[in-house]
Amino acid sequence: MKHETLMAIIDRANGQPVVQVPAFTYFAIAPHVEEAEVEVHYTTKTVNGPIYHSGTHTIFLIRNNDGICVAAIQDAGEWDLHWVVDPAYRGQGLLTAALRNELLPYLLRSRPWQQVTVSYGVAAEYYQASQKVARRAGFTAISTTDDEVVYRITAEDLVANPVS
Fold first, then answer.
1. Record's SUPFAM superfamilies (predicted)?
2. How many domains does the chain contain in total?
3. Which of 18, 35, 54, 96 is 20 to 30 Å apart from 69, CA to CA?
4. d(CA 99, CA 106)
5. Domain coverage including residue 109
6. CA distances (Å), 160 to each of 3, 21, 157, in order?
7. Sheet containing 148-153, strands listed edge to edge, beginning at the edge strand earlier in sequence
8. Burial state string for 71-92 with b = 16 or more CB within 10 A and e = fewer than 16
9. What is the domain-level CATH number for residue 54?
């Protein structure tokens, strides 16, 4: 899912009318995390022409203590996550704390591991910041190339390596 689409989901979750994201329902799974099923429609430009995407996706909404949606995380399949943080809330540790303390324990109850792929080609300007979030949330790099790092974490990793 595109960065812009996740930002539109954040806007919709904060009550703003967003044409490309219809209204959706969500429910709390932890104090700062909600799970939503969102139907989205977007187009990706490719060398061979545009590709139209449509479907329902699981999105986790991260809210701050004031109830404002500050980030959205797509459950991207193959136990991979794709996240975006609203620019006004970047650098505050909100995504890292929600991942570490709420979302990862929730996901790892039903999965043997969770992974996140940080790719320079997908979001170059957020490449370093996303790696920092992954490491601080407790993920360990399992594969590295010049422009991509795959991180993974297990429930045992959460217990064995508490964040102070």
1. Acyl-CoA N-acyltransferases (Nat)
2. 1
3. 54
4. 9
5. 3-160
6. 33, 40, 5
7. 26-30, 33-46, 49-63, 69-75, 80-85, 114-119, 148-153, 140-144
8. bbbbbbeeeebbbbbbeebbee
9. 3.40.630
